[in-house]
Write a structure and sequence with these properties.
Elements: H1 3-16, E1 22-24, H2 32-44, E2 51-53, H3 67-76, E3 82-84, H4 92-102, E4 110-112, H5 123-132, E5 138-140, H6 147-160, E6 166-168, H7 176-186, E7 194-196
Parallel strand pairs: 1-2, 2-3, 3-4, 4-5, 5-6, 6-7
Helix pairs in contact: 1-2, 2-3, 3-4, 4-5, 5-6, 6-7
Length: about 200
């Protein structure tokens, strides 16, 4: 229950500490003001942090434009390797913003966007990124709202991807039609090693 006062203190540590590599802030009582401060520091100052977890902030931001701050951080940051954004109320507009900025990032290897609200409309930008990225190794999209149509679009990116090794589509309402498209994409993909799709329909 560190709230925004606590997160500002942690941001000071992040600002001045050049050794910190892992920061897990998941499931704490803080809001987007604190996350904004972290994004500014990671964009402009900190060059050591490799793993960041900001799952489930208590005060979620329903305006998807806010995710431009996270996107701009990902565009500029050169150290972050793993990022977890579970339970952040990210919808398709927010995921588009994040993945658009990720096109210029060759450092992030692991991204967890599970337990958000990403649906069919968010799959286009994700699929495009998968077709061009050379760095992303692990992508968790579990417990969103992708369904069959979203799976078909995602399959296009999977077929052209050469880096992804882990893909989680758990609990997305994907039925046989979507699964067939994903599996056909795997025939053209030589990098995927682990695929999770339990709790489908």
């Amino acid at each position: 229950d560190i709230n925004n006062i606590g997160i500002m203190k942690i941001n000071e540590l992040l600002y001045h500490n050049s050794e910190l590599e892992i920061l897990n802030l998941g499931h704490n009582l803080y809001g987007w003001d604190g996350i904004l401060a972290l994004m500014v520091t990671l964009k402009a100052v900190n060059k050591s942090l490799k793993i960041l977890n900001i799952d489930d902030p208590s005060f979620k931001h329903f305006d998807q434009d806010f995710f431009h701050h996270i996107g701009k951080m990902l565009y500029s940051n050169r150290s972050l390797d793993k990022l977890s954004l579970r339970f952040n109320k990210i919808r398709s507009e927010g995921s588009d913003i994040i993945f658009t900025h990720l096109k210029n990032n060759v450092y992030l290897t692991t991204l967890d966007l599970s337990s958000n609200q990403i649906c069919l409309d968010g799959m286009n930008c994700i699929s495009i990124l998968l077709g061009i990225t050379t760095s992303l190794r692990s992508l968790n999209l579990g417990s969103n709202q992708i369904h069959d149509k979203g799976a078909k679009i995602l399959a296009l990116g999977i077929a052209n991807n050469k880096s992804l090794q882990f893909l989680d589509l758990t609990n997305n309402g994907i039925r046989q039609e979507g699964l067939v498209c994903i599996c056909e994409a795997f025939e053209l993909n030589e990098s995927i090693r682990i695929f999770k799709i339990f709790k489908g329909n």
